[in-house]
Amino acid sequence: MTEALVHGAAARESVLLALADKIPELIAYYEARELRCVFANKGYAQANGCSAESIVGKTVREIVGEDAWRVIEPHAAQALRGEKAEYLRDLRLPGGEGRVIEVHLDPHLGGRGEVLGIFVLITDVTRHQLAEARIQYLAHHDMLTGLPNRAYVTERLSAILALARRHRSMAAVMSIDLDDFKAVNDTLGHHSGDTLLKLTASRIRQVLREADMVSRLGSDEFLVILADFSASDDAALVAEKMLQTISAPVVIEGRELRAQASIGVSVFPRDGDSAEELIARADIALHAAKAEGRGRSRFYAPGAIDATADALARESRLREALQRAEFVLYYQPQLCVADQRLVGVEALLRWRHPQRGLADPSEFIEFAETHGLIGEIGQYVLREACRQSKAWQDAGLAPLPIAVNVSAAQFQRRDLVAEVARVLEDTGLEGRWLELELTESMLLDKDVVGEALAGLRALGVRIAIDDFGTGYSSLSYLNQLPVDKLKIDRSFIDDLGVDADERAIAIAIINLAKTLKLTVLAEGVERQEQLEFLRAHGCDEYQGYLAGAPLAAEEFGAFVRG
Ligand code: C2E
Ligand code: MG
Ligand code: MG
Fold first, then answer.
1. CATH second-level architecture of 142-302?
2. Ligand 1 pocket, 362 CB below 6 A?
3. Whose CA is nearest to atom 45 of ligand 1?
4. More confident residue, 332 or 143
5. What's the rounded Cα separation, in Å, for the pair 351 and 526?
6. How many angstroms is it from 524 CA to the middle of ligand 1?
7. Its pTM surpasses 0.90
8. Of 9, 11, 47, which is closest to residue 26 (Cα–Cα)?
9. What CATH topology corresponds to 2-129?
């Protein structure tokens, strides 16, 4: 150790030189006077058809040739003025393959600020760009209605607000939610549900003017932006007209239906200054409209936030449920598409309500999230899933990775990694048998996420992205995160047999997963034809009623034993 330090200078130089050849980036250094190469790593030299020795002493023009020099020259000039230059270049390799590289030219400054030379750093960003192009397609549109999605609309709203600020005019955000849409879906089937959504989208559009815009946020949620009007009465009129238009009777597959919606409205500048604030407040107003009995519109009113008696009662009932151990986990098998082997299991939460029977998470998870209860519930789920998985292993079942859903609030807690570590330790389950399911929106804050995921990875825990394709994916860095699996959302699997858009998206996600070397799993597979499609397109795994519905622990154990 001491010896290495004593012989430091020489040793360090040979280490640095070896290191320079090991990194994937291409690096070089040019002196400033004639732009002659002083140093290049092997990668840089080879990319320019030279060896690391023969490139030294040549000018950049000699090295790259006239055509490339014309592209580089203005950037080099900028670096010679002492400013950093950064640009992208498309390259075509001799075999015809296209690559995109990112070039950084960084001036090397002397003590008096004079430029001594230029550091060149080149990164291959092809993979990154491919992923981005694919995801742009997924990221900006809702495939069912063809309406723009949340990401796009938030961006546009910011632009509309900037304009309204300049014109001193008003703008409004309207959050629209169909009442009891779930009942339509459940009683008449998804197909009718989809038809109703498409129809509702076009009815909403009928009420709007050219400059306004509408997007679809979630299954039965729409967001409307009214650009530029003069008094809040205008917005109230539009909301009334919207309610009427949406609730006009329709006939779908021979049945007469009457949709009904609730609307929450927030107004710029009165209720907020930013897109996020206005959308959040329109949502609060929407909850108020729902609480008051649905089928109506409400404006945002400060203070009237949903601290209603009803919410309080639900909250204490959920706390009770935790204490009385009314939560249980159900387990759904995950199979290999190619050979039907059991490859995993997902734990899904149920509430065994003494009066109402088994309740699905859709009835209480969101409420638990917004009322600060998800932490405790999430802890229970994690611990119980790990305990059960270990118990199965101890009982002689072949070990299976167990997937646990993590909510946003749970993920944002600083101590998630520590909690997972503790649970693994307490239950004796090895980290490699645990997989956590996150959703795309949780991955937006890169700094926090990178650290948390690295911590989980260190425990051997795997990461899956749930409901993939429905969120605003910031995929530009998904390939930098230690993610193992993409789960294609059920909505893209539903109509695989008949809907060309869904097919295109499913294929795009499968290919994306391949590009990023991730496992890809299709959710909600109910029919053989869907499975055939997935097999034909190389999807790795699937989950759904075709393979098996979620089962209670004892039943799942029996299912595995066969
Ligand atoms: P998810 O994680 O995407 O789970 C898949 C959902 O699809 C489950 O609904 C499952 O029962 C359902 N499903 C599975 N196969 C099929 C199929 O072939 N057809 C149809 N139509 N549905 C199928 P579930 O159990 O009601 O869960 C809904 C969502 O609630 C989950 O979506 C997940 O986001 C959340 N959730 C469930 N358990 C937990 C939990 O323990 N913690 C948290 N934070 N969220 C949970
Ligand atoms: Mg899940
Ligand atoms: Mg899912």
1. 2-Layer Sandwich (3.30)
2. yes
3. 405
4. 332
5. 24
6. 9
7. no
8. 47
9. Beta-Lactamase (3.30.450)
